[in-house]
Specification:
Distance between the termini: 41 Å
Oligomer: single chain
Bound molecules: zinc ion
Order of helices and strands: HHEEEEEEEE
Strand order of the largest sheet: 4-5-6-8-7
Strand content: 25-35%
Number of domains: 1
Largest sheet: 5 strands, mixed, barrel
Length: about 170
């Protein structure tokens, strides 16, 4: 770590500690997201999202939900799989704050929160998304979130998440 000189500078110019940090809002307005390329396993997920429905793959033998979709159940290896709607309420399972754009298309939103969400109805299924409508600093493990649907174009809608409005 070579943080000593920087620490001295910060000591002389303290960051404001009161009020919400409005500078922590990620600017998604100038980001053009990559368009999904569905395959036979993911197609039902995207078709449901376009209708404003979060639908996840569920094993019809052992009733386990899984995401992303696979050809077989990851728990019991059954091949009888179907997509079933879930409520869209869930919890942040993990998160990363992106300070560098590995993909230049996301540069305008830096810094932003990438989150992994575990839906209430589908324990064990983990969805990758961004935390929208909140400062990226609000991404914390265990926080309640709800799905929002972000249209990408006429064909694709991306399930994303925001902090849950009904706090429990
Ligand atoms: Zn199964």
């Amino acid at each position: 770590m070579t943080s000593l000189p920087r620490a001295n500078i910060l000591a002389r110019v303290p960051e404001p500690r009161t009020g919400p940090d409005v500078t922590a809002m990620s600017d998604w307005s100038r980001v053009t997201r990559p368009i999904p390329v569905p395959n036979e396993w993911t197609k039902p997920f995207w078709e449901a999202a376009k209708r404003g429905v979060l639908a996840l793959q569920r094993c019809q033998a052992c009733k386990h939900f899984q995401h992303p979709p696979y050809a077989t159940c990851v728990r019991c290896m059954a091949t009888d799989l179907a997509f079933e709607p879930v409520s869209g309420a869930g919890t942040i399972y993990a998160y990363t704050i992106m300070y560098h754009a590995g993909d230049k298309r996301f540069a305008a939103a830096i810094p932003y929160a990438s989150i992994i969400v575990e839906p209430d109805d589908a324990p064990g299924a983990l969805l990758a998304a961004n935390l929208l409508e909140a400062p990226y600093t609000e991404a914390k493990v265990g926080r309640r979130v709800e799905v929002v649907f972000q249209p990408l174009n006429d064909d694709f809608t991306l399930p994303q998440f925001r902090l849950a409005r009904d706090t429990r």
